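Chapter summary example: a protein plus magnesium ion.
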Amino acid sequence: GPLPAGRIAPPLSDLLSLYVLVSGATPLSVVEAVLQAGCRMIQFREKHLPLPVQVEAAARVREACWRHGALLLINDRVDLAQAVGADGVHLGQDDLPVAVARRILGPGAIVGATCETAGEARIAQAAGADYIGTGPVYATPSKADAGKPYGPDVVRRVSEAIRLPVVGIGGIGIGGAAPVIRAGGVGVAVISSVVGAPDPGAAARAILDEVERAKEGV
Ligand code: TZP
Ligand code: MG
């Protein structure tokens, strides 16, 4: 199971408060710092390295997440998720359909989907997704084919259309997280503001604080 036996898994909406995306190039020390800072959801997202290298890198992240009681999802690849015993997958509109991933991984897996519109989100929800990621909220340096940023309102449009928890993604850092929560998000998915920070642990802690305060309405 994803968490040590005898512990109750917190709701997904708590685990998703700070959702950090790492790649095969992310030093394990950065992953450790982020987990130490309280991040409870990691996504392994590696689109370029050879698959044998991805398996090795993802397995190291898997082990770190276990030690910290965090969940690990794999971007794009259901086979890689199975190979390393990840907790689930995150799928875009061009990846395996949500219902297919669900059939392969079973009812206990977490399946997330990227949706840029309310319509896509309704379809993903009906197909059995557990949460939705939407964006880009702000301009992102991390995804070459990302379209024009929508602003935090995309989180409102998507979250009002469905019951599932929604996270915003794209250019979110300190100061940009609270508007996502106020728009109805349960959390933020981030790369550069944490993984690219001089002190990734401090950046993760600051963003998590901002999210938690916004969730409390402060
Ligand atoms: N999908 C939409 S924006 C994005 C992805 C994967 C990249 C997010 O990275 P950053 O550095 O937090 O903008
Ligand atoms: Mg994808």
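Key point: Residues 135-136, 140-143, 146, 169-172, 190-193 surround TZP (ligand 1) (CB under 6 Å).
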